[in-house]
Design a protein that fits this description.
- The protein has 2 domains: 122 residues, no CATH class; 133 residues, Nucleotidyltransferase, domain 5, CATH 3.30.420.
- It is 39% helix and 15% strand.
- The longest helix has 15 residues.
- The protein is built from 13 helices and 8 strands.
- Helix 5 packs across helix 6, helix 6 packs across helix 10 and helix 7 packs across helix 8.
- The strands form 2 sheets. A 5-stranded mixed β-sheet has the order 6-5-4-7-8, sandwiched between helices. Strands 1-2-3 form a 3-stranded antiparallel β-sheet, with no helix packed on it.
- It is globular.
- By secondary structure, it is of the alpha/beta class.
């Protein structure tokens, strides 16, 4: 005989649950549906610590001993500076006040929502949404995409120098984009980004300096990433030609008015030009990015491109996010680092 017990409709049953039970059920459903929970983030970080020796986020020493636990987080003590810390110290989750909303924030962050939309959906302030975004972007700066293999294409792309968001401007603020027109052609008012990619989608996108690219910047960016085993394809800018010659790198360059854009059916700069176009479209979503934060957004774009074919993008993104315990300190010192770069007219 079939069971004749009356079944309670699902929605009515859910209404009978307490608020704590609803939260527990929500977390279980997220886990089953491959969402990210706080427990997932802690598990990922704990696994990283097991596989790689942890260092002190305060003094970088690796002379670390266990120091019990607090609120379900492992604690450590540094024998060099005597300071204590937990497994999440220094990551973007350091000193968070609303940790229960951070996993939801990460999922919405991956959709590139505006700060106001994030704040509205999660019922947090716009300032909190802004700080969390830049904690995440700072953490991404510690991601090393690896080395180049085989043929490498490279190009330099200029961005307008932007002081968006600053309250202490020494000039009148621009009311509209056309206010910049009288400064067109002055490359010292622009910053240059070097975009490089090999044929296996290993990419490097680096904010270099004010003005045009030079050999010193290329040497810093390509150090150990491009060797005499690689072959470099670029435009005909003299800095690329000079650096390649000094470094004994096989170099193939192309000019804009050149009829033939492919040499020997393999040497060209079509991949990096395509990447430039994708990046330009990607940045339009933000209606301008302050130069102070530009490298963080470049890293965001680079990692999105790297993970776009991944089966579990969010999980891999979290793995990159919590892999360093230095990101919180870097977040706190963004302004100081930026002022140093302004004075030097270089960002690397």
């Amino acid at each position: 005989m079939k069971n004749n017990i009356m079944k309670i409709p699902l929605l009515d049953y859910l209404e009978q649950l307490s608020e704590d039970d609803k939260k527990d059920l929500y977390q279980l459903l997220r886990k089953d549906l491959h969402g990210i929970t706080l427990e997932n983030i802690k598990d990922i970080r704990s696994e990283q610590i097991v596989n790689k020796p942890i260092s002190c986020p305060h003094c970088n020493s690796e002379k670390i001993i266990g120091f019990g636990s607090y609120r379900e987080k492992k604690r450590f003590r540094c024998k060099s500076c005597s300071k204590t810390f937990n497994e999440m110290t220094g990551t973007p989750m350091s000193n968070l006040k609303k940790t229960d909303k951070f996993s939801d924030y990460l999922e919405l962050f991956s959709q590139r929502l505006s700060l106001r939309d994030l704040a509205t959906k999660l019922e947090i302030s716009v300032r909190t949404a802004f700080d969390w975004r830049h904690k995440i972007l700072t953490a991404l700066s510690n991601y090393n995409g690896g080395y180049f293999d085989g043929i490498v294409e490279s190009d330099d792309k200029q961005f307008e120098f932007s002081e968006k968001g600053r309250k202490d401007l020494k000039r009148k603020p621009y009311k509209r984009p056309s206010d910049r027109e009288k400064e067109q052609g002055n490359t010292n008012k622009k910053v240059v980004v070097v975009v490089s990619s090999d044929r296996k989608n290993n990419r490097d996108i680096t904010l270099a300096k004010f003005g045009r690219i030079d050999k010193k910047s290329l040497a810093t960016i390509f150090e150990e990433k491009i060797t005499d085993k690689n072959k470099l394809c670029t435009d005909s800018h003299y800095s690329y030609r000079g650096w390649a010659n000094d470094s004994n790198i096989e170099h193939h360059y192309f000019t804009a008015n050149q009829k033939k854009h492919v040499k020997d059916k393999v040497y060209h700069i079509q991949h990096v030009n395509s990447l430039d176009n994708k990046m330009e479209r990607w940045f339009k979503k933000f209606w301008g990015v302050a130069t102070k934060y530009l490298q963080g957004y470049l890293n965001w774009f680079k990692i999105e491109e790297k993970l776009k074919n991944s089966e579990n993008i969010l999980y891999e993104f979290i793995t990159i996010l919590v892999s360093s315990n230095k990101s919180f300190i870097q977040f706190r010192t963004i302004e100081q680092s930026y002022q140093v770069c302004l004075n030097a007219k270089r960002f690397i």
